[in-house]
Design brief:
alpha/beta; seven-stranded mixed sheet; four-stranded parallel sheet; 6 helices; about 30% strand
């Protein structure tokens, strides 16, 4: 019987291990992937993140490594390749608990903390004609190593933060970057737009209407209404399509396909089930890693107070404890 089961192994879920551990809560974490890390690990491991406190910049993969190392002090139980099928409420000796069912096992917990991020996701793929054998070879959705683009000509498709951040990063090592967006308005940070404008080897073409892609002489030709572009690689940055339809089976109140929570406690419509990160919705919610860290702290404190109402409440800080446990 765990105090808390954390569902979702992205950065927010991993930090929740530490946050729950600081409250003295026994927890386990589950993720449907083969490793912890979420999108940071599998979608953009070498992308640099600039809004993590204490870091001028940090790669997504390094952030995950740091979070895992930080949480390891509490020796959590980690279950991978585990997809939650259902969450049932049961009563045993006047104590309510949750039975979390997986394909081949069942786990008991007194509280559940959902940190699913965008859910089970797949990158949005190109919708124009091209030879499918190019996927993974020259049309890249998942950036594992930046060095493959060294001294190459690269087209980045998209107009959001991910596209611009990647263009800025690759411009440091690539010969030429084409930033192509179907609209003339970019939805990205002001800082990033300035960096794009200042770069000598990023050519921004917007609007750009992509028609189809062909391969010729080991180069890709992007056929567009405005002009044709010749590159070594194409990186679509259209975001990801998330699948969180399974949440409907958990009897949670949803708003725009996200879990509704009380921001003061992070508790959902089902008492004892809490949710944090990009999978939730409340007034003023911002989908940032930074915000999720704060929500993890709020949720873990709320869970402790609910599970152990008779224990003395006191404000403690990690700097006051050599063993990183409040009580």
């Amino acid at each position: 019987m765990y105090d808390v089961v954390i569902i979702g192994g992205g950065p927010i879920g991993i930090f929740s291990i530490f946050s729950c551990g600081m409250e003295g809560l026994k927890c386990a974490i589950f993720d449907s992937n083969s490793e912890l890390g979420g999108q940071c690990k599998f979608q953009y491991p070498e992308k640099k993140i600039y809004d993590i406190p204490g870091h001028k910049e940090i790669t997504a993969s390094q952030l995950i490594e740091n979070l895992i190392d930080q949480s390891s002090i509490f020796n959590p139980d980690i279950y991978l390749n585990a997809f939650v099928e259902s969450i049932e409420e049961l009563l045993e000796e006047n104590q309510k608990y949750f039975l979390i069912k997986f394909k081949d096992k069942e786990i008991k917990a007194r509280a559940v903390l959902v940190a699913l991020g965008a859910g089970i996701y797949q990158p949005v793929k190109l919708s124009v004609p091209f030879d499918e054998k190019l996927e993974g070879e020259k049309i890249i959705y998942k950036i594992e190593k930046l060095n493959r683009f060294k001294d190459k000509e690269v087209a980045i498709l998209g107009g959001g933060d991910s596209a611009l951040d990647l263009a800025i990063e690759l411009s440091k090592i690539s010969k030429k970057i084409y930033l192509l967006h179907r609209r003339n308005v970019f939805k990205a940070a002001y800082y990033s737009m300035n960096k794009i404008m200042e770069s000598n080897n990023i050519e921004k073409i917007a609007p750009y209407s992509l028609s189809h892609i062909i391969e010729q002489d080991n180069k890709l030709t992007i056929i567009g209404e405005e002009k044709n572009i010749f590159v070594d690689y194409i990186i679509p940055c259209y975001g990801a399509v998330s699948n969180i339809n399974f949440l409907k089976n958990w009897n949670l109140d949803l708003f725009k396909s996200k879990i509704k929570v009380n921001p003061a406690t992070m508790e959902s419509s089902r008492p004892g089930i809490y949710a944090i990160g990009d999978c939730i919705n409340y007034d003023g919610k911002r989908d940032l890693i930074l915000t999720g860290f704060s929500e993890a702290s709020i949720a873990s404190r709320s869970i402790f107070k609910k599970l152990y109402p008779n224990k003395a409440f006191q404000v403690n800080y990690s700097t006051n404890s050599d063993i990183f446990i409040y009580r």
